[in-house]
């Protein structure tokens, strides 16, 4: 499928089926696959090393994971856009759909549910029924209170959304690792950033 | 087929890469990241910026309308604008109808692989707030990137 064609498919007014088929195609045909366990274990070793380095100060570990994620996100967005050729989203609803059906599918091969919209439609939740990052993980007692094991995801989303001019707060609201019913990632849009214009033009 | 020049602008309105070929017969002629092209870059940016706002205003509301080419009496500019605010611009002779595939390749196979995947290279070329809004001066200098651009675009120069 040519890039310009795929661009059209994706932008043809967000029919759910087409975005899904579009993402499935990219996942199947344009994405190199790696062993999921290797990925899970690599992430596990990063988290455990951070816990050691910060002497089990989990607030600091959360923060560090978040900032690592941010740095990944600002680069990953270019990879994502290069693969999908998607234009900017015109609404947060569209953004949420692209995140769940397209981004999570391409990078992690999961399609989380979107829900829990706030009444003014400026925040939503991503429900991760499957989380490849925490596949084999059980949190020890001391970590269960404070550590957000997959906090890197928040940073990635924050960084990536910022690069498409959406200033968002992203945080975990609950995690099955902590004994909650669901793993819920909350995304709250603060504002749409303005595109810059050259100095002296305003 | 003839290519005249290739430009990349970032979301801070800065020109982060320029390549101009001067001799059709020699793909290694011309300048790369030249100071002399600063003003041309600003004018080119302004032209695309204005036409881009017009094209978006004229498009029906809600749908996306990104500018692709601009033709004048002498040359054609081919433009790829990404959602992250990067602009890839190729200037060619009028014979070239559509170089969008070439621009896509430059973005996804060259820029992404040699700049974005290269963790020691910045992805944001404005280091401080006063290098934003078109006042930056940093350029892409990754060797891999420069080589890949020459190798890919060189054969299309004449």
From TrEMBL, chain A:
<keyword id="KW-0333">Golgi apparatus</keyword>
<comment type="similarity">
    <text>Belongs to the TRAPP small subunits family. BET3 subfamily.</text>
</comment>
<protein>
    <recommendedName>
        <fullName>Trafficking protein particle complex subunit BET3</fullName>
    </recommendedName>
</protein>
<dbReference type="GO" id="GO:0016236">
    <property type="term" value="P:macroautophagy"/>
</dbReference>
<dbReference type="InterPro" id="IPR016721">
    <property type="entry name" value="Bet3"/>
</dbReference>
<dbReference type="GO" id="GO:0005794">
    <property type="term" value="C:Golgi apparatus"/>
</dbReference>
<dbReference type="Pfam" id="PF04051">
    <property type="entry name" value="TRAPP"/>
</dbReference>
<dbReference type="InterPro" id="IPR024096">
    <property type="entry name" value="NO_sig/Golgi_transp_ligand-bd"/>
</dbReference>
<dbReference type="GO" id="GO:0005783">
    <property type="term" value="C:endoplasmic reticulum"/>
</dbReference>
<keyword id="KW-0813">Transport</keyword>
<dbReference type="InterPro" id="IPR007194">
    <property type="entry name" value="TRAPP_component"/>
</dbReference>
<dbReference type="GO" id="GO:0048193">
    <property type="term" value="P:Golgi vesicle transport"/>
</dbReference>
<keyword id="KW-0931">ER-Golgi transport</keyword>
<dbReference type="GO" id="GO:0030008">
    <property type="term" value="C:TRAPP complex"/>
</dbReference>
<keyword id="KW-0256">Endoplasmic reticulum</keyword>
TrEMBL record, chain B:
<keyword id="KW-0333">Golgi apparatus</keyword>
<dbReference type="GO" id="GO:0006888">
    <property type="term" value="P:endoplasmic reticulum to Golgi vesicle-mediated transport"/>
</dbReference>
<comment type="similarity">
    <text>Belongs to the TRAPP small subunits family. BET5 subfamily.</text>
</comment>
<comment type="subunit">
    <text>Part of the multisubunit transport protein particle (TRAPP) complex.</text>
</comment>
<keyword id="KW-0931">ER-Golgi transport</keyword>
<protein>
    <recommendedName>
        <fullName>Trafficking protein particle complex subunit</fullName>
    </recommendedName>
</protein>
<dbReference type="GO" id="GO:0030008">
    <property type="term" value="C:TRAPP complex"/>
</dbReference>
<dbReference type="InterPro" id="IPR011012">
    <property type="entry name" value="Longin-like_dom_sf"/>
</dbReference>
<dbReference type="InterPro" id="IPR007233">
    <property type="entry name" value="TRAPPC"/>
</dbReference>
<keyword id="KW-0256">Endoplasmic reticulum</keyword>
<dbReference type="GO" id="GO:0005794">
    <property type="term" value="C:Golgi apparatus"/>
</dbReference>
<keyword id="KW-0813">Transport</keyword>
<dbReference type="GO" id="GO:0005783">
    <property type="term" value="C:endoplasmic reticulum"/>
</dbReference>
<dbReference type="Pfam" id="PF04099">
    <property type="entry name" value="Sybindin"/>
</dbReference>
